[in-house]
Amino acid sequence: MSSTHRQMHLGVFVLGTGNHIAGWRYPGAADSFVRLDVVQQIARTAERGKFDLLFVGDGLSAQMGAHPSFLVRFEPLTMLAALAGTTTHVGLGGTASTTYNEPYNLARQFASLDHLTSGRAAWNAVTSSEPGAGPNFGREHPRHDARYEVAEEFVDVVRGLWDCWDDDAVVADHATGLYVDPSKVRTLDHKGRFFQVKGPLNASRSPQGRPVIIQAGSSPPGLSLAARTADVVFSVVQDLGEARAAWAALKSRMADFGRDGREVALLPGVMPVLGATEAEARDKLNTLQSFVTGDNAATMLRNRLGMDVSGFAMDDLVPDLPLPDTSHGFARAMLSKARRERMTWRDLHNLTGAARGHWVVCGTPVQVADTLQEWFEADAADGFNILPPYFPGGFDDFVDQVVPILQARGLFRTDYTGRTLREHLGLTRPAV
Amino acid sequence: MSSTHRQMHLGVFVLGTGNHIAGWRYPGAADSFVRLDVVQQIARTAERGKFDLLFVGDGLSAQMGAHPSFLVRFEPLTMLAALAGTTTHVGLGGTASTTYNEPYNLARQFASLDHLTSGRAAWNAVTSSEPGAGPNFGREHPRHDARYEVAEEFVDVVRGLWDCWDDDAVVADHATGLYVDPSKVRTLDHKGRFFQVKGPLNASRSPQGRPVIIQAGSSPPGLSLAARTADVVFSVVQDLGEARAAWAALKSRMADFGRDGREVALLPGVMPVLGATEAEARDKLNTLQSFVTGDNAATMLRNRLGMDVSGFAMDDLVPDLPLPDTSHGFARAMLSKARRERMTWRDLHNLTGAARGHWVVCGTPVQVADTLQEWFEADAADGFNILPPYFPGGFDDFVDQVVPILQARGLFRTDYTGRTLREHLGLTRPAV
């Protein structure tokens, strides 16, 4: 990963009904997130586009009225595993919660996915921002900082379980009948504040050594966890200056943990809306926005800001508001943009409806490629997590129209050179 | 399912290294349980054989020294999901614990698998018999009866979550933008002794209405749970008389819950060892048995009986012993056979090493078919869970040599007539 040959890393954020809240209403778009053929087609397109990663988020409650794919969705591990046999190169990453899982179960599932994919699994470790999750688990949803305290230990336990087996512990010696060399398997014997886990895992060391770890926290504890443990970081951005500052903050924080900043790929989320002309792209975005119902946008905005904002008049300017206890990333990026651009609540509703608070880049393929290149070269990003507004067309457009430009400019691979996700990302395979 | 056309149901029990404890040492056998191509081949063979079900068990600890596939294994949900896209008809069933999972997570995973497979998912609800699981979850492993008390409520919560959505709740109305009809989705609001779960699930109702539920408990609480909630029951048998009694007991117990005995398929586990002649089959079994190491068999026997039996001399007769707190099914079948046949500890070691305590039928294809037919027609079984001693050859032999005989006798389907597992089993799709 020398800086002279620094290349972008690209992920695709999969929501079956599209990342735009009303993408499913776009002519020709898929309108279900529980159809295997839809996600298989997305995966094939990701491999055609030589993407590093296919990513699926998750939630642990049915958020009635919100984005349709937040309401009716595949469970990520099963969805990703279903793609194992029908893909060959693209990394397969999914969200799983450190608040509502057992580390032993989660470590097994991702190790299993890594075996099934010959080294393409990635875990997005989230603390779960939705308060609605708690009642589905008989618990009060923990507060933000408390969730991160658990997450720190949870991630350590999972990594520890992945490290219980030496690479060569399974000998399967036909002559002697020895299957596992017991001297190459260790218990973990973790006794922490939140977890006690003996181990070892009942899975041998997986092809990547450890599955790739993704994080998306942007609060101070989120940044710490990412800087200490992540291989890939997703971020919510709306402004180049803020993105550059966030990039520098992450890389600098990594140094506190003795890590080189190049060991993490920071991938801001971006929704590309493409047209043959800028006007055509604007028209497409306007069409998508015309499909947003007031209820959808209001529910999404309430969830993102962690407060009921229905008391505000739509034409009032968005005031200064405190960060919520749910998710800091979206709220900070959106409120900051609202202040910067003197947005009304109506503007903020529209912004939320479009890309759920993520950055929207609207224009011709060259304009979009120019913007991505600018951000990449300004040290605001190591690549991007692409959020097509709808599937399959919105993703096809990016892969067929923007990726070739990035490739021609030497910014993105023209073919896979590795087989594992770690290899795509230029990361070393961790030693036990 | 009229009795004049009663047909067998067949499952295949998948352990990558074979069901025989040393099957992996057989010439040509697969010797790993973490290879996707191996399980894909098994799945293709199951569909060639028109099997109802492909089944994978599970455990929550690495049982060092035991069966190799108990030590290094795929996590079942991810393994089954990986088969979703490369199979079309066979049911895909896997074990998941009611003791070490959250019902909300588990309900989602199986609903997701049912969507991914267009209606072929099955959950084997187990309470986890291994004491070694507890320390991996920071808990003391609960006692047998306590585990079943939790399991009763756990299964109800999962079924309740599956029932939160009407079949037609997702409307995806492109004209109005209404995605879900909120009047067709309900919370569960379960407040029980062990679980409080609000719901609804964030998954629409799955193709089978509810994934198929499998159970394998044979203790009084296990029998109750199976009689009340199961669609398929696995059993451990060694004797026709005992199997007939167990079959009658299950069907009779179902009546206590207002269910018709035909609503459950009872499938005893059986390991077929085939040869062109009976002597050839015996030789094959002897070859397999010669591969068993003393350690393997002793570990397996200790686990099955729930006690350390190393103090007994190998040539002593097996005495009367109490049933363990771990798993009753295996211990009861094995101890009963040992008494009936005046077996020594050496004999019991050999029996355990062969099929982990399951029934072994050794002979020509016609002899094996005869035996299965006899049991089926004697109301000792509604079909069988086939445990090939090794893969792929041991399963190929059964599918190519025994299945055609069963088909020619009108005992087993010659092609699939349905698409979902419920349809294969002749079960109705449950109403909400």
UniProtKB/TrEMBL annotation, chains A, B:
Pfam families: Bac_luciferase. FMN binds at residues 58, 95, 144, 148, 218-219. InterPro entries: Diverse_substr_monoxygenases, Luciferase-like_dom, Luciferase-like_sf, NTA_MOA. GO terms for molecular function: monooxygenase activity; oxidoreductase activity, acting on paired donors, with incorporation or reduction of molecular oxygen. Keywords: Flavoprotein, FMN, Monooxygenase, Oxidoreductase. Residues 19-378 form the Luciferase-like domain. It comes from the Bacteria. SUPFAM superfamilies: Bacterial luciferase-like (SSF51679). The keyword Transmembrane does not apply. Belongs to the NtaA/SnaA/DszA monooxygenase family. This is FMN-dependent oxidoreductase (Nitrilotriacetate monooxygenase family). It comes from Roseococcus suduntuyensis.
